[in-house]
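note to self: dont lose this again. the chain is below, predicted strucutre after it. 118 aa total, dont forget to put it in the shared folder this time
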Amino acid sequence: MNIKPIKTENDYNAALKRIEELWGAPENTPEEDEFEVLFTLVEAYEKEHYPIAPPHPLEAIKFRLDQMGLKESELSSIIGYRSRKSEILTGKRKLTLKMIRALHEKLNIPLESLITAY
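---
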């Protein structure tokens, strides 16, 4: 096992290839240990070089509603009046801090997704 930090795109690609070879390694073996270490290094490299921005707040809301099998009309009970819900979902009105808190608490939408400027 010759593991080193991932500093370049070539290092990254080599680590991905090795991870693929080690996929499904038996538990409690040196191969499994190598897999875990490489996986951690790749995650760190990707976090730094390929960051994933949080989704647009309105897309996050719609996605969560879809995931939970809820209708947009049910959003009114969380953020207020039906007309306010429509204004929010069409982008005519911004989310307030109170709405952000309610959406986070009731729909478990990450705050990072809800506070993104739009």
